[in-house]
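[[Local backbone shapes]]
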Amino acid sequence: MNTVKGSFYVLFQSYKKQIMTFWCILFSIVLFSLFLDNFFGEKTFIAISVSIPVYIFYGIMAAKLLNKTLPYFLKLGLSRLQYMFNVGLFFISWSLIGAFIIACTQKIIPYGSNLFIIHPILLIDNSPSFLQTMALDTVLLLFFLTSGLLLNVVFYRLGILGGYSFIGLLCLIPILTIIFKWYSSLFDLLSNLSTFTLLSNLLIFSAFLYSIITMAIRNVSVNPA
């Protein structure tokens, strides 16, 4: 338990400045949007998103995790499996906190006539509850954290050339989807899934990615490639 608490403290301190800066900027944008809506709402249409910037921020932060923390934890004597276990718990806690802040912020923001809140859950439900919003955000944040960490592992093990080659392969996926028109079938499949099924599948996929990352990091060097 002391190891987990210590790991949480170190992981949080590694990102404390970035976290505080990000939330200050995001809340400033939200307040500015509310100001515009109150004073110019009759003449303008304003659309903002609280969740999407958080997804991107979490992914970027996870993509730097190994370089910032792995050598330090290994020097302290933690095994790589212990490190990944603690990071996994940190990701879950971080996702729950982020999802709670997003859900609270969206409930606090008054839905003015010209202020539209963009959120992925609107693709599933036009009037989602607080728990539905938080559940979707938690799973999506976990997915972005895991995806960012996967990218970090690729760069950490294979270096810059291998990392950008991996990104290039990922970019082929949407291109092939458009060329072969797979997007229509994918959209039909997703639209027919229930919210619970969609969240469960995404959570299982995130857990699968994390297990791959854990196996890939078992013999990783202290210093990146």
Summary: DSSP finds seven helices and two strands in the chain.
